[in-house]
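Data availability (excerpt). The following record was deposited with the supplementary files.
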Amino acid sequence: MLKAAPIGAVLSADLGDILARKRILVCVGPGGVGKTTTAAALALEAARRGRKTLVLTIDPAKRLANSLGLDALGHDIQQVPSELIDGDGELHAMMLDQKKSFDEIVERYASNPDAVKRIMANPVYAQISGSLAGSLEYAAMAKVEELDSESEFELIVVDTPPTAHALDFLDAPQKLSAAIDSPAIDWFRSMQRGGRGRGVIGRTGAYVLKRLSRFTGSRFLDDLSVFFVEFNDILGGFKARAEKTFELLRTDKVGFVLVASPEAMAVRECLFFFQRLSNASMPFAGFVVNRVHSNRPVQVNTDGLATALAKVPSVAALSYQPGTLRMAAEALLASHRELQVLAEADAAQIKRLHHAAGSNDVVTQVPFFREDIHTLKGLSQLSAYLAPR
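Predicted structure:
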């Protein structure tokens, strides 16, 4: 395989400028395109440029933690050893724990410690905080808002779930606010308290509860209604946090970095998300396209390449039959033609991103690396393409 040439290219601006100006970078994109690694490389580069930086990941591979000089990543923030940074800043890392993030919010807004214990012991809360659709995205956003308000870090780089869920990342605050104001939740609270709602619902409410209990069990309904009463004290806090987070994501200090590979499906997902950002007036920072095949046309025929191969000392030292070099040259040129086809296909997809970005044309290309990145050296190589100095 031909060695990839440096092609980290952008037009009107680059991610280095964005690393210096933004306070929060949110990396989003399809799964399997190097999004988590990109987030880590951007954070590393920012730290090397003197900023106190945190990279917040969702579900990183263990080897990513190892590449940062850490045994593992957890919910507690850890500092990467300063001797590995080779710069004037600091790099910190953490992996979001969905359950712990929800617990922290409950502890902040609950009226007293006993209420916290009762809520956390309720099986309904365990389900909502651990596996409810959108709860991971809400927990991540709430954590970002908390970290921003504490002002400890100059830059926060956020890794997100794949794009299908990253759309939930945008919608989570509004969905939670709508759920909190839901008549169904208010109905359960009124039924548990025996308030005015119970009198209004009357026999209809009793009938509904009776029918539901056949499918869910009466214990579940009791847990559900008790949960909503206990949770009522902190619902306002959840809603306020959701609204603050949504507003935060629309400010100029935030930038969304859309990460993709040059495959048509990945580009299509990125363009769909780009449109969502535009419609929501959220700040776009740029595209990153990983695993790009480099376009390297050659002006040589089979005989010319065979002649060139014969002059290579290591080849000349070999014993080979007549015609072997010509066969090798034919195979090399055929392989190169295949790579050129891939490079042309990649270029066509990247052109779509340039067209979509328009005046905000920040499209950074990263070549196809021979090996997956799982060392600090690999992150350094990636950061050199993402934000060249």
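Summary of structural features: DSSP finds 16 helices and eight strands in the chain.
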